[in-house]
Amino acid sequence: GTGGCAFNQFDPAAGNPANLNAIPIFQGLPINSSPSGPGGICAVSGNPAVASALGYLPNQQQFQSLNFPQSIFLNQNYLNPSTFLPLGFQPFGYPQAKNFVYAYSQQANVSIERDLGRGFALNLAYNFNGGRHLNRPINANTIRGDLMVANFEAVLYDAAVINNPAILSAPASPFTVSGCNAGGGPFQLKPFVDSSLMNFFRPGGLNPSIIGAYASIGDPLGCISQAATLAHTLGFNNCDPATFGGCVPFGDMDANYSNGSSIYHGFSANLRKRFAGHYEFLASYTWSHAIDDSTDLQSTLTPQDSYYPGVDRSTSLFDQRHRFVFSGVYQTGKLGGGFAGKVFSDWTFAPLVDIASGRPFNVLTGGGDNLQLSSLTSRPNVTVDPACSTVYASKFSPSGHFQQPCINGFVAAGIVPTLLQLDGNLGRNAGITPWTAFGDLRVSKRVYFTERLSADFIVDMFNIANRNNTAAVSPLFTNAGLATAAYDPRQFQFAMKVNW
User: Is residue 35 pLDDT above 90, yes or no?
Assistant: First the structure.
């Protein structure tokens, strides 16, 4: 399965060869991978033998690194003969690019202000901010999905030609292809190789722990040699199968690059009234657009396709196209003596209105559709493929529909897709949350007890209209935009301030 953390079973048997017109065909080497989850290899605390070897500490949810015996994960000790453990999915890391530089920004602004008289002033401003060399996580050793599909199609073709599950059975997915076959012969079989041995066709080259697994049984099929030749042909990293020299004992490497960039354009118009005649106010409107290709250095924000990170350039998550804010203060001041004068004097009314358009969010499928195991960045298709799963209507799709990408159509037609064809064709951050409107008001009354002693009685009212303002939405393509959190409802706050 694609979610396995390690191989939890190794059966040293290569299967039975059969002679079909002098063509030797072998059943794949049964190295089994368990899926992640409560019953999978990830739950090593449930398997005492594996837990002991890995040094897993269930209460701390980490592997032993301070006391002895240390986890065999340390220093890649799972590759040592005395502590050997074949891992289909090798450890991952978060390295830093060797040409990493610190980010900087280029800023420019221009503004014009006009005094309109009688306390009014109008200000027009433009702001530019260009981020350069921003932190940008990109998987430097990600899976080649196109090669995974080609390998999968080859073994399915061979299994169909042989038509004997006892000799060669069809795997369930590109991640479960095992064994190997050089291809050719009278049946014109297609070559395939164990996908885990190829480290799932990562540029880092072969998986040394699976090399060791095959070598431990003598590699009767010659899978190691076939895989090494294929890796060299593809231009992958060269790995010496005999000594593990040059091998890369890692899976995903979400490296922190500094090749990200961003652009912000903002135009604002402000109308200001200075305090006079009992009142003042500020009315402000801002139009802005923020564009970037990276948001943070979290691994969950790697591109959908690490081979084409530029495709992820889009409107930023924090982009807010329109915003209007009005704030003001009105004070009654002293209105004379007597009871009525005291009642209606020294009142302050301060409204605040904030109306803003929604912010973008990334619509996701939640599955590693392009085989790069990027379930947190995989996006849906806006085109419909009859070979794939359910179609969902959505206002965020240019076509009005979303569908999860799949390889079924390519496999059925025997076509090897390109990397981009495996990606969802919806752009990044294509969803927009609902617009928000907040209306707040402060009302205060100052009461004088003596010439020097007074108290302010204050009432703050937030979201007076009690409008349901959406704070977060579901990013899943099946119900994209469904509200999952809201800002605070109407609230009142009472206070008293004593002055002396």
Answer: no
